[in-house]
Amino acid sequence: MKVVTWNIQFGREIEQATRDLTEQASLADTDVLLVQELDEAGAQMLARALGGYHFEYVAASVHPRTGRQFGNAVLSPTPLHDREVIELPHKARFSGQPRVALKVVASIDGVTTALCSTHTEIPALGSAKRQDQFAALADAASAWSTERAIIGGDFNTVSKRGVRSLVARFDEAGFAHVSPRVVATVRRAGRGFTLDHVFARGLTPTVSGVVHDAVASDHSPVWVTLAPTSVTPSRRTPPEPG
Q: Cα separation of 227 and 4, whole Å?
């Protein structure tokens, strides 16, 4: 199963995003697409462009910078059901915007699988409150009854310490970090940051990577191919960066 997570920067370049998703070899034939920072119309456009994917969408808020919905979506060629919105604690320090995660369930290869797209707050919120957001999602995910589960999104981890803390929290909840941990997904002022991550339960990564040639956003999409496993992989044995 191929999973892609991508923050599409306010959903401004949806048409370019569809070209990136269909023309980039590493992103083609995606089974699970987790998207952030778009509106419902953008999610619908992506679903249609990908050949009629099913999708679920939730808006966390209307962004003051764009005046448009600002939310998360899950897309898949497989029907999606059992939608759940997880409200994360605390609001943005300056804008007062809330953050959420969207969880749905799909039958993939005959196995019930939980799929979750999330976008946690930027570092201006403060470390302790951001840790509360990580914990709220990890705690919710640990209670999901499905044999397999996938969580992906933009966690705004701007330091190696932040990545380690995030990975440790989800490890405690039974989720392995399955995307590249040392490859930048955003570059700003000449520096690279690994903001976007994928976690999984009941699945093992076989290969993964970050597509720096995608141009629809300031974030690069992250992809990972997962295979079934009977034992949850440890965070101490992450996949080699692709």
A: 15
